[in-house]
């Protein structure tokens, strides 16, 4: 009886939430201390392109998704010059044509791909100056709002990498400096060279290792946090089942292998139960948890279909009771999820 009542509630309640979400104006926050105003929810565009060799999505649907996101008040669009070898930037460029002022464009650079395989990084100043010219042309814009190396390694002195972006800011080709997937020490060093506006990093109930040092450092320095992988590569959606299909990319990571996956999916059951009781999906609760971690933190959610927008917008309105938040934080404490992903490299 309880299960049938839940199904009935979901049939009525979720469409209502979706309808309300389409009318909701997304909250705006300052990206970093005294930074630009951006939507509290960001749109990740990567999955609209075949980054790892997968099939292309329907371009018209992808463009329509970006435009509907803009219509809904989501102005933060995240892309990378290596997403689909420039395909993603071209896509975003088509979507924002004629409405540049509606969009805040975040671009990552530095990764070198060939044959759908990442070969490494090229962070030389001469390469960065080349990368940005191609990005500006593909996007059809004169200035990139947030420009960031996708990672930092020791191949090029960090002073040269960040100094080059600082020069691009002086030239008017870039407005703000961002960084992605770096350590707390690296963040301090970069910020000492040029003020950092935003840190892009993976963060979810299942990946909380950054809470010990990186998040506190970003907050101390007044740097905004753009948090991707809110569902931990699908683990927290409540839809993943063991064993995974043989061709799933997840097999590369120990979190999704053997007994680790079985035990990790058992941990997700409490999220599924809470979602059922609150009348939402586990994905919505996973996004809502990230959103609740602070006004300086933006959930960056990947979407390629308009049908995903209402539920993800609705997730931004979800509130947790103190008991619910305590349950989630205790159950998904740091280290509770077994195995690693690329976020632990």
What does this molecule look like?
GO terms for molecular function: oxidoreductase activity. Keywords: Oxidoreductase. The chain has 345 residues and is an alpha/beta fold. The protein has one domain (2-337): Alpha-Beta Barrel (TIM Barrel), CATH 3.20.20. The chain has eleven helices and twelve strands. It has helices spanning 2-23, 59-71, 87-96, 125-139, 158-171, 184-193, 214-221, 258-278, 282-291, 309-315, 322-331; strands at residues 28-30, 37-39, 42-44, 76-80, 104-109, 111-114, 117-121, 144-149, 174-180, 198-202, 224-228, 297-302. The strands form three sheets. It has an eight-stranded parallel beta barrel with strand order 3-4-5-8-9-10-11-12, surrounded by five helices.
Instruction: Specify the CATH homologous superfamily.
Output: NADP-dependent oxidoreductase domain
Helical region count? 11
**CATH class categorisation:** Alpha Beta
Radius of gyration: 20 Å
**Main sheet, how many strands, which sense, barrel?**
8 strands, parallel, barrel
> What is the terminal separation in angstroms?
47 Å
CATH topology, by name, is TIM Barrel
* Percent helix: 40-55%
Largest sheet, order of strands side by side? 3-4-5-8-9-10-11-12
- Secondary-structure class: alpha/beta
Question: Which segments are poorly predicted (pLDDT under 50) over 5 or more consecutive residues?
Answer: 1-13, 15-23
**Can you write the helix and strand succession as a string?**
HEEEHEHEEEHEHEHEHEHHEHH
Shape descriptor reads globular
Q: What is the mean pLDDT?
A: 91
């Amino acid at each position: 009886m309880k299960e049938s009542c839940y199904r009935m509630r979901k049939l009525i309640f979720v469409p209502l939430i979706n309808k309300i979400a389409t009318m909701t104006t997304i909250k705006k926050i300052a990206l970093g201390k005294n930074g630009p105003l951006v939507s509290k929810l960001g749109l990740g565009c990567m999955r609209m392109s075949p980054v790892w060799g997968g099939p292309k999505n329907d371009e018209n649907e992808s463009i329509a998704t970006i435009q509907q996101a803009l219509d809904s008040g989501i102005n933060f669009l995240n892309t990378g010059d290596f997403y689909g070898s420039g395909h993603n930037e071209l896509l975003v460029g088509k979507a924002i044509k004629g409405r540049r002022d509606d969009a805040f464009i975040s671009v990552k650079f530095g990764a070198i791909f060939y044959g759908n395989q990442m070969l490494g990084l090229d962070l030389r100043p001469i390469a960065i100056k080349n990368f940005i010219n191609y990005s500006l042309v593909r996007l059809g814009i004169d200035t990139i709002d947030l420009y960031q190396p996708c990672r930092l390694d020791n191949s090029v002195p960090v002073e040269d990498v960040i100094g080059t972006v600082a020069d691009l800011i002086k030239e008017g080709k870039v407005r703000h400096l961002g960084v992605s997937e770096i350590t707390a020490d690296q963040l301090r060093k970069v910020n000492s060279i040029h003020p950092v506006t935003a840190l892009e990093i993976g963060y979810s109930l299942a990946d909380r290792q950054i809470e010990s040092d990186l998040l506190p450092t970003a907050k101390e320095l007044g740097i905004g946090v753009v948090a991707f992988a809110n569902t931990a590569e699908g683990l927290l959606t409540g839809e993943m089942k063991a064993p995974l299909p043989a061709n799933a990319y997840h097999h590369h990571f120990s979190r999704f292998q053997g007994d680790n996956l079985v035990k990790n999916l058992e941990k997700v059951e409490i999220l599924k139960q809470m979602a059922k009781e609150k009348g939402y999906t586990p994905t919505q609760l996973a996004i809502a948890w990230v959103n609740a971690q602070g006004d300086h933190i933006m959930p960056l959610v990947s979407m390629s279909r308009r049908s995903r927008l209402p539920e993800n917008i609705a997730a931004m309105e979800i509130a947790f009771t103190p008991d619910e938040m305590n349950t989630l934080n205790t159950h998904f404490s740091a280290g509770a999820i077994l195995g690693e992903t690329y976020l632990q490299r």
